[in-house]
Design brief:
Layout (H helix, E strand, L loop, with lengths): L1 H19 L10 E9 L1 H5 L4 H12 L4 E4 L14 E9 H18 L10 E2 L5 E5 L6 H4 L11 E7 L4 H10 L11
Antiparallel strand pairs: 1-3, 1-6, 2-3, 4-5, 5-6
Helix pairs in contact: 1-6
Length: 185
């Protein structure tokens, strides 16, 4: 994890500054936060099913997840306003870098079918969204697999300080995150 921070301060920041001709070093994009979000249909049917999901997210990130609720009623999905949907975790600073380092070195290298993991979704503001198909690929959960009877996926959003997709692509490729067709042109 310290290698991630060292590489950014020593190499990546200088490379981005020179390559994009920023006026000041303040304008060089940085990673600001990682948001992990999950929801499940079983939680909508029974509120008690949120406990294993919250425990799993706590084990994965080391942070306490917060519940997410429905904003609107949707009759087709049997959702009512303020109904419990799932939980989310916001990771920042050192914890964010720990998670990204673990994601890059352990999780992605152990995936057999990486195409299900990768996605070409930038949100127009340089943030990258991808889905993790199953949270049991994390080593913290893998050892306690018997305790978790359901397997659900997680949506992960890597947020950076820029508002331009091209700068976000450049930042993610500099971090050597395995992103599909996102190299700087």
């Amino acid at each position: 994890m310290k290698l991630f921070k060292f590489n950014y301060n020593k190499y990546i920041r200088k490379i981005l500054f020179i390559r994009k001709n920023y006026l000041k070093k303040i304008f060089v994009p940085t990673l600001t936060q990682v948001v992990l979000n999950t929801s499940s249909k079983s939680v909508v049917n029974n509120k008690r099913n949120i406990l294993p999901i919250k425990v799993a997210m706590n084990l994965i990130t080391g942070e306490r997840p917060i519940n997410t609720y429905a904003k609107n009623s949707i009759a087709n999905f049997n959702l009512k306003e303020n109904m419990l949907l799932g939980c989310k975790v916001n990771l920042q600073q050192e914890i964010m870098l720990n998670f990204l380092y673990k994601l890059k070195t352990i999780i992605i290298t152990n995936l057999k079918d990486i195409k299900t993991f990768l996605n070409k979704s930038l949100d127009g503001r340089g943030n990258y969204n991808f889905g993790i198909p199953d949270y049991t690929i994390f080593p913290e959960i893998n050892f306690l697999f018997e305790l978790f009877d359901t397997t659900i996926g997680m949506n992960t959003i890597v947020v950076n300080s820029t508002n331009i997709d091209l700068d976000g692509k450049l930042l993610f490729s500099a971090y050597e995150l395995p992103l599909n067709n996102m190299m700087y042109k």
